Structure formats: C-alpha cells, structure tokens
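Sequence, please.
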C-alpha cells in the first residue's frame, strides 16, 4: 500500500518524535550515570546540568503526551495514524491485517495528562504533587514504538520503516560518545 503524501508526512513526523524521545532517555541516563559515577564532573556545572535534566524530562513527557494522548482533532498521534491505516487496510480488503491498539497503563496515562494540564502547559496554583518516573515514561515509549512498528509492518511500503532495536542502539552509542566528549 502506497501512502498519500499527508500520511507519509504523518509517519515521518511520528518516527522523528519517537526517536527524539529515545534520545532524551539516552541523555537522561548519561546524566544519571554521571551523577552517580563522577559526581565531581557533574557538580562542576551543577546548575546547568540540573537545568538540562529538567528540560529533558519536560521534553520527554510533553512529546509522549503529544504522540499518544493529544485529543485535538488535528493532532498527529500514533492512534490516529493506526486508525487511518486500518481504514485503508479495510478498504483494500486486508481487514485481517488491521493493527490492534497497545495496552497503556491507565495510571501512567492519567499522570501524563495531569502533568501536561497542571504543569507543562500551565502552572496551576493548586496542582497535585504528582511525579512521573522516567522508568514509567520509558515503558510508555516502548508501548508507543510497538504500536507504531506494528502499523509500519502492516503498511508494506519500502519507504516506511519500523524503528528497530539496531537503530536505537546506534543512536544510543552515538549520543553517549558525544556526551562523554563533552564531560571529558
């Protein structure tokens, strides 16, 4: 099945955002390792490093909200992309190839939606002290990637590629090397 220009743009944008989230995780993990393993280097620029960590955490949470939970009719989410592809599969007589939605923890969903409403997009004076663990965000990202990859597999177009473990590994290695070079 050949994607329309718009659907291909949607695919490309989602792939870029998903990869961007994985890059955020790699950099956050590097900072965590630096805090534990070489505290002196981390503390040399503690204010800047802490600021970067907060920015990365916010970027990760907001990006995940954007591609998973944004309910604006014009939003480009993995679910809407899946629904559009499933519709094309049905029209093409390939209903059996339709992609199912990945199960996402309701707790994580509620936490991200509330975090976005009360803290990332607005600064509510009466917000709850909710906290999102990076591990939970990482698990959510894995679910998002699984659904995205299942959709890519169903499309069967040479220009549409799944996000492979190998691609993630290359990105992780590249970003880790760059981070190490900064903190030598």
């Amino acid at each position: 099945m050949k994607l329309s220009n718009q659907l291909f743009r949607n695919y490309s944008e989602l792939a870029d955002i998903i990869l961007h989230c994985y890059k955020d995780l790699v950099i956050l993990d590097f900072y965590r390792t630096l805090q534990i393993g070489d505290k002196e280097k981390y503390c040399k620029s503690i204010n800047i490093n802490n600021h970067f960590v907060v920015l990365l955490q916010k970027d990760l949470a907001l990006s995940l909200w954007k591609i998973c939970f944004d309910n604006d009719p014009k939003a480009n989410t993995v679910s809407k992309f899946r629904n559009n592809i499933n519709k094309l599969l049905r029209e093409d007589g390939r209903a059996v190839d339709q992609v199912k939605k990945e199960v996402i923890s309701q707790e994580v969903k509620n936490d991200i939606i509330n975090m976005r409403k009360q803290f990332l997009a607005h600064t509510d004076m009466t917000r709850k002290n909710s906290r999102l663990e990076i591990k939970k965000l990482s698990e959510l990202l894995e679910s998002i990637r699984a659904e995205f990859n299942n959709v890519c597999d169903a499309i069967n177009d040479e220009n549409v590629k799944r996000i492979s473990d190998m691609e993630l590994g290359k990105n992780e290695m590249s970003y880790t090397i760059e981070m190490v070079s900064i903190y030598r």
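Residues 5-182 form one domain.
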